[in-house]
Amino acid sequence: MLVVTEYGMASIAERVARAASALGGRVVTAIIPPFRSQGEDFPPGVAAAMREAAVLFMPLAVSMSHTPAVHEARRRGARAVMMSDWTDEMFASPALVETDFAAQAGVVRRLGAILSAGRRFRLTTPRGADLRFESGGRRANELTDIPGPGEIAPVPTIEVNFAPLEGTAEGALVVDASIPFLGVGPLREPITLRVERGFVTKVEGGGEQGKRFREGVAAHNDPNCWNVAEFGIGLNPNATITGRALMDEGVMNTAHVAIGTSRMLGGAVTAAAHYDMVFWEPTLEADGKIVYRGDTILA
Fold first, then answer.
1. CB 230 within 8 A of CB 273
2. Residues contacting residue 234 through CB under 8 Å, at least 6 positions apart
3. 174 by DSSP, 3-state: which?
4. Comparing C-alpha atoms, which of 187, 132, 213 is closest to residue 165?
5. Are residues 150 and 64 in the same domain?
6. Could you tell me if 73 and 125 lie in one domain?
7. Tell me: the pLDDT tens digits for 117-129?
8. 159: domain range?
9. What is the CATH number of the domain that holds 80?
10. What would the DSSP string read from start to end of 186-218?
11. CA 69, 219, 185: angle at the middle one, nearest 5?
12. Are 25 and 145 part of one and the same domain?
């Protein structure tokens, strides 16, 4: 087992390593400098060690799940546990210690099968979101937090997601729960995104938080950062909105859309970043039939 962390998260890594060692695991810990952006990859020596690990734990300030090093480690069969922006308090959070992950896995598999079977989707919310997109036959990613070989676990998020087919997303998205990136966090007022041909073309509202989000994405100077990269549904019944991605994306009665890189989800776009935006009370249609509303599977 390999634990990869950075200077500011070393105490989290130590807790993980001690627990794994107490259970008989053979643990190696690598401490690296903080990443400056999501567009970086792991240092070559660490990437080589990752390729040989059976299990990876990655307490890092930002998610690096999309990197070539993680992709190659998973291709070789590593179980990858992401602990992005993790805090000591999360070890005792209800989302982690009170959730029956095995029971929720059945819900994840059921919804994953429904999304994998769909081709044309429509997302709406009471706030006015109306976004259409296609899957292109891509299978949904089922994140149960009980990873098998080659799978990823963004603990404590439980979700089903997929990368919409490039160029198909059209309409409007209204984000009213959280953007757990770029210092935005839980939203005080909604932010509306206009989408054309698979890209966000305009960001409206949100006050100072909306401005911070617009400027933060634009600062990458990468048009692909506006690509509609992911649609996902949160399925952890004990998760709450906190402003931390691995908690917010798993909240029940929410869904999320991400922009930027989509390759790690089965898409075709590489970008300098990947930012998820969480919103309440989704209704999802697949091929003209409502399959999910709020926190309930209807198909």
1. no
2. 157, 158, 159, 248, 249, 250, 251, 252, 253, 254, 255, 256, 278
3. strand
4. 132
5. no
6. no
7. 999 999 999 999 9
8. 100-297
9. 3.40.50
10. E-SS-EEEEEETTEEEEEEE-HHHHHHHHHHHH
11. 80
12. no
For the chain, what is the radius of gyration of the CA atoms?
18
Contact criterion met (CB below 8 Å) for 36 and 11: no
Residues in the chain: 299
- The predicted model scores a pTM of 0.94
Instruction: Give the largest Cα separation in the chain, rounded.
Output: 53
Give pLDDT tens digits for 201-253: 999 999 999 999 999 999 999 999 999 999 999 999 999 999 999 999 999 99
For position 48, what pLDDT does the model report? 97
Structure tokens at 276: 């998820």
| Structural domain includes residue 117 | yes
What is the C-alpha to C-alpha distance for residues 45 and 146, in angstroms, rounded to an integer? 28
Q: What's the half-sphere exposure (Cβ side, CA atoms, 13 Å) at 295? A: 14
Please identify, among 86, 120, 149, the residue that sits at the C-terminal boundary of a domain. 86
Count of structural domains within the chain: 2
Kindly state whether residue 95 falls inside one of the protein's structural domains: no
Looking at every residue in the chain, the average pLDDT score rounds to 96
The answer to whether the CB of 234 falls within 8 A of the CB of 159 is: yes
Closest-CA residue to 13 (of 99, 91, 96, 98): 91
- Are 189 and 290 in a shared domain? yes
One domain, residues 182 and 211? yes
* Residue 87, pLDDT above cutoff 80: yes
**Residues 117 and 184 grouped into a single domain:** yes
Residue 139 DSSP label = P
Residues 249 and 272 in one domain: yes
